[in-house]
Design goal:
It contains 5 helices and 7 strands, in the order H-E-H-H-E-E-E-H-E-H-E-E. By secondary structure, it is α+β, with helices and mostly antiparallel strands. The protein has a 7-stranded mixed beta sheet, with helices on both faces. Strand 6 and strand 7 form a beta hairpin. Helix 2 crosses helix 3. The chain starts with a helix and ends with a strand.
Length: 149
């Protein structure tokens, strides 16, 4: 097989099953919640994410994650990016960030911002694709990536 035949078809579609999307987040973040927010559960995740712009991340028509965006003036905030463990380290996160950038530019924003746990392995991905730390506290990095057309 050549690379084209091996290529994954990654698509982003508006989430229609928000409880399932909340489960993705809760399951992926379970260790962080246990350490930093022990009272969190999937229902609380749903409560804080239902009003965001939710996208299912699909690979070959199978949902493998969720991406959530929020717009605030000239900024697009990547509020959540979750990929199930079996689909991680395959370029899906990078593809999701590219899609977030495309959507942010389409909404005439000039930066993509996010907040990530300092201990998260995703920090290296975000740095690799051009995010820089603009501030931090004891738990989180607040990161930004300027966007240009």
């Amino acid at each position: 097989m050549n690379n084209e035949e091996n290529a994954m078809m990654i698509t982003f579609i508006p989430s229609t099953n928000l409880p399932r999307a909340a489960e993705f987040t809760f399951n992926n973040m379970r260790d962080y919640y246990a350490q930093f927010a022990p009272d969190w559960d999937a229902e609380k995740v749903l409560g804080v994410t239902a009003e965001l712009i939710n996208y299912d991340i699909q690979v070959d028509s199978e949902t493998v994650g969720v991406m959530r965006l929020q717009y605030d003036g000239n900024t697009c905030i990547l509020r959540d990016l979750q990929v199930i463990p079996s689909a991680q380290n395959k370029g899906i996160g990078s593809a999701a960030i590219e899609e977030a950038e495309r959507l942010a530019l389409g909404a005439n924003t000039n930066s993509l911002d996010l907040r990530v746990f300092k201990v998260s392995p995703a920090v290296s991905l975000y740095k690799k694709v051009g995010f820089v730390i603009k501030s931090e506290d004891d738990r989180f990095f607040n990161m930004t990536k300027p966007l240009s057309t």
